[in-house]
């Protein structure tokens, strides 16, 4: 069979796919997004996984040095941008817009109160969700905190910002995109009916 004959054999399949790609795209988008969401693909691709890891570091019961993220740290750039774009502190926003970046991010509070548990268990130290996230603009590693410090939010707020980002993405993919594909499918079908008529 020559290439022209092979193309003729595939032509009905190609025409079917072209005519029905919209109908196939709607469940495929939902399926691919759903599988990717459950496996954490979109968190990884979007950078949410790295940001979540940095927030977990800030919330660590170990305190220093784990909860101190200096500007040289691989986790620093993403978490700093993420928080700076969402903070309610006008001074942090002003500095961010002017290009001034903190040299260290940490949290205040937590680590003082050991949660009572049986003595054979590991010790659990309370880190309140309301602990403020702090930016230091003059800190120097490995252990200098500095004195030019601003609050940038709380651990609870940072976690809620991630959830809001994820929910917004789900809304755009599962509702807006599938609705747009459904509308396009209806328009396509109506055009086909018009031509047939």
Characterization of the model:
The chain has 197 residues and is of the alpha+beta class. The chain has a domain at 45-179. Helices cover 57% and strands 11% of the residues. It is built from 6 helices and 6 strands, in the order H-H-H-E-H-H-E-E-E-E-E-H. The strands form 2 sheets. It has a 4-stranded antiparallel beta sheet with strand order 1-2-5-6. A two-stranded antiparallel sheet has the order 3-4. The two termini are 38 Å apart. The model has no long low-confidence stretch (mean pLDDT 82).
Q: What structural category arises from helix and sheet content?
A: alpha+beta
Unreliable parts: none
Task: Tally the helices.
Answer: 6
Radius of gyration, Cα only, in angstroms? 26 Å
Which strands sit side by side, in order, in the main sheet?
1-2-5-6
Mean pLDDT: 82
- End-to-end distance, in Å? 38 Å
Provide a quick synopsis of the model.
By secondary structure, this protein is an alpha+beta fold. The chain has a domain at 45-179.
Question: Helices and strands in order, then pairings?
Answer:
Layout lengths: L2 H37 L1 H6 L1 H11 L10 E2 L5 H9 L5 H8 L6 E4 L6 E2 L8 E2 L6 E5 L12 E6 H42 L1
Antiparallel strand pairs: 1-2, 2-5, 3-4, 5-6
Task: Give structural attributes.
about 200 residues; alpha+beta; 4-stranded antiparallel beta sheet; 6 helices; 6 strands; about 55% helix; about 10% strand; elongated
């Amino acid at each position: 069979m020559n290439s022209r004959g092979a193309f003729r054999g595939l032509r009905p399949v190609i025409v079917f796919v072209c005519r029905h790609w919209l109908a196939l795209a709607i469940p495929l988008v939902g399926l691919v997004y759903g599988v990717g969401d459950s496996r954490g693909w979109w968190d990884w691709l979007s950078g949410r996984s790295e940001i979540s890891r940095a927030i977990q570091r800030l919330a660590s019961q170990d305190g220093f040095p784990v909860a101190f993220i200096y500007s040289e740290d691989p986790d620093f750039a993403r978490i700093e941008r993420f928080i700076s774009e969402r903070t309610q502190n006008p001074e942090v926003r002003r500095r961010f817009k002017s290009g001034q970046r903190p040299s260290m991010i940490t949290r205040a509070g937590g680590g003082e109160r050991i949660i009572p548990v049986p003595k054979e268990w590991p010790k659990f130290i309370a880190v309140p969700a309301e602990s403020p996230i702090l930016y230091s603009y003059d800190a120097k590693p490995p252990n200098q905190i500095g004195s030019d410090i601003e609050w940038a939010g709380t651990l609870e707020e940072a976690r809620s910002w991630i959830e809001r980002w994820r929910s917004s993405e789900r809304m755009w993919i599962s509702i807006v995109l599938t609705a747009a594909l459904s509308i396009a499918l209806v328009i396509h079908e109506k055009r086909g009916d018009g031509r047939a008529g």
